[in-house]
Input
Amino acid sequence: MANIEKETNPTVLQTNISVIDEGHLKLSEIHNHVKLLLKQEANKNDLAEAFFSLSYFFENYLLKEELLLKSKGYPNFDDHKASHSSFIKGIEHLKDSYENDIKCTLKELDTFIGDWLKTHSLNYNKEVVDFLNKK
Output
């Protein structure tokens, strides 16, 4: 399954650190679901389900990653946690506006998740993975 997700979303990099890889895989799955909803006639319930999945993602995977980094003494922990907070705020902003235009919100959600996967993976995760591999 990881190889399929890696092929469908090249921004998801395998780190061989289970907590990070599980989180990225889950977010990639959500992102692929949003892309599928864009191709279909999605309704408010579909969009609400996507937001519920994202809530589950940040309540579980981001928290696990933060706990791991904190326990290992990651020196840029506050910045990394701030990037997670920024992600959550962005999702909450989109969630607050989804009643207005479902298709538009899905497009914005697709772009937001895609950009975050790319920038978070490239900027933070290389540093995090290097740090954790040294530990």
Summary: Confidence is low (pLDDT under 50) at residues 1-8.
